[in-house]
Amino acid sequence: MAVSDITGARTDLCDLSLTEATRLFSSGEITPVDLVDACLARIERVNSTLHAFITVCAAEARAEAKASAARYAKGEPLGPFDGVPFGLKDNIETKGIRSTSHSKLLIENVPAADAHVATNLKKAGGILIGKTATFEFALGGPAWDLPFPPALNPWSVDHLPGGSSSGSGSAVGGRLVPAAIGTDTGGSVRWPAAVCGIAGLKPTYGRISRRGVHPNTFSLDHCGPMTRTVADCAVMLGAAAGFDPLDPGSIDEPVPDYAKALTGSVAGLKIGLVRHWYDGAATPDVVAAVDAAIARLSELGAIVEEIELAPLDDYIDCKTTISICELYAVHEKDLKTRPQDFGKLLRRRVIAGGLIRAEDYIQAMRWRTELTTRMLAEFSRFDLLATAGWLNPAEPADPNGVDFFKKRTNVTMPFSLAGIPALSVLCGFSSSGLPLSLQLAGKPFDEATVLRAGDAYQRATDWHLRKPPLA
Amino acid sequence: MERKPATREEIAAMVKVAGLELASEHFDEIVEAYHNIEPMLWRIRQGRDRADEPAHAFDPRKFMPRAPD
Fold this sequence. Notes:
The complex is a heterodimer. By secondary structure, chain A is of the alpha/beta class.
């Protein structure tokens, strides 16, 4: 089935953004049942290649789609997310649906309750299509020794989709679903978004509840939307966000109408460019693409000034120390009693956390305060910070490749430590046709300005309209 | 001051204190992993002011009994 998109061009239903789809639901040109059927057919066709989904909930999705279609028929949709098919990373618990964290340890885990973020998305009318692949417990990957194969990149199936929200990035980039939720501790929404050619937002820490999400690092875990357009991210964030009194990390701040913030303008916005994190560290095509994106934002009226923050290595050392201590605490019992059931990568990355002294963990937390305070001071002069979304294009899918942990390319980690909203947005392609990305970060709970700038950039460019070869 | 990586014997002692009983292949893994993180730990052990706060904050109100939704 094909329909006209917002430009008037004929398009396959799977090519529709979620905002285009809900516009067509409202006009009656298509129904949520049509879109869910199209997504399920596409999953049937390409998931055996991409391995983006671990579990597909076809029957449940079709039933929810019928209910949503009935609401639209009565002119009573629940809101701008009603009828939207979405994927959830498999470290997010779903009532009655296997939630494995891509691990042998949880292969039979069928939760009795939904995670808070899943509840919110369902209350908004979203339709869960399935559970997406991840690195084991959002850390151990890409790995070939787990119960499910690693997801692959829709722009080249010889490459990986980043991680750890690898299946969510692959599913959205490959147009299996228009939207998915990932989790982000050090960059696990933004990295796959960057290398799969989509938009991914890590909101402020505490913006979306972590309740029902398998922990990676309690003090750094976030959930975030992954979509093809920034405008779609705004809608999905509005549906997913909200205070949860049962998550001690949740913060009671009103959820604004993010879509209303998308004015299309960056005129007068002050952007601090952290160029030293990527210049000289990123591949030349990343440097050129990010510089060009910044130049485009300047042409659109943003006021850009280059600034210097702490070296990227400082953030990586600080974050990694905190994470492996917390990860070890989460997995200590299983590491001691059934270490062979973990994938080798996760075990290797986490087990040394048991050897770190308590005082080193606390020193890392003190360093986090210092690094964050220094970064947030820049917001007295700037509305946004900008840098690269990732330092290289997608990595080859090579089981013998170099462990990415050793490459120290995590340009996402500074904003993880600071807990501030950060958006990865497609800003070009490498010479080999792989996506490249810009990263924009804002003040705590100012997702609206981050989204506004990302959306304005997409309105002025057409990178996000390109289709991967697989599509 | 030049720092030397921990020896296998030193790591074995830390493993014992941590209560881990590892098969030999898993011990090799932890030696490799510890050697990867050790330079980070050296950098973290910088002098700090006594009053420097860690990025922890405890709000007891967060742990009051509440009904699930």
